[in-house]
Amino acid sequence: MRPEIEQELAHTLLVELLAYQFASPVRWIETQDVILAEKRTERIVEIGPADTLGGMAKRTLASKYEAYDAATSVQRQILCYNKDAKEIYYDVDPVEEEPELPPSLLPLLHRLPLLLLPPLPLPLPLRPLVLDLPLLLTTLKSQLWIF
């Protein structure tokens, strides 16, 4: 086949394929229904230059599936590769280790809560009666909550 005819056929094929692509429906709504309702997908990651389909999926979730997700306790994530790479790869920031205290301060730390407690509002008898026990427990609980 001659190159001119080959080029003309390639051009015609390209135009026909593009026309078919633009004329065919995308059926994005039905695709979302399958992904979100039938498969109950909880994590969707869009890989592309922009968060286009993820944005549409977020709007669909908010308008159509919010009550369904709340009723079935489904928590979904719509992530985009460009923005959410740390969450996609489960990268976490390194945790800074706390400096260790010298051993001489450790016994004082165990007594610190007792030193910070305010005085009890009621005088506590040394041997409470059984009837006074709920009052004593309430007083002690309130002291613990104040701390």
Structure explained in plain terms:
There is one protein chain. The protein is mainly alpha-helical and 147 residues long. It is built from 6 helices and 2 strands. It has helices at residues 3-23, 28-38, 52-72, 85-88, 106-116, 133-146; strands spanning 43-46, 77-80. A two-stranded parallel ribbon has the order 1-2. The N and C termini lie far apart (91 Å). The model is unreliable at 139-147 (pLDDT under 50).
Beta-strand content estimate: 5-15%
Q: Please trace the helix and strand order, writing H or E for each element.
A: HHEHEHHH
- Count the beta strands: 2
CATH class of the domain at 27-88: Alpha Beta
Please summarize the sheet with the most strands.
2 strands, parallel
Which fold does the CATH topology of the domain at 27-88 refer to?
Answer: UDP-galactose 4-epimerase, domain 1
Estimate the helix proportion, in percent: 55-70%
| Rg (CA only) | 33 Å
Mean pLDDT: 77
Give the name of the CATH architecture of the domain at 27-88.
Alpha-Beta Complex
Q: Report the uncertain regions.
A: 139-147
Structural class: mainly alpha
Reconstruct the topology from this structure.
Blueprint: H1 3-23, H2 28-38, E1 43-46, H3 52-72, E2 77-80, H4 85-88, H5 106-116, H6 133-146
Parallel strand pairs: 1-2
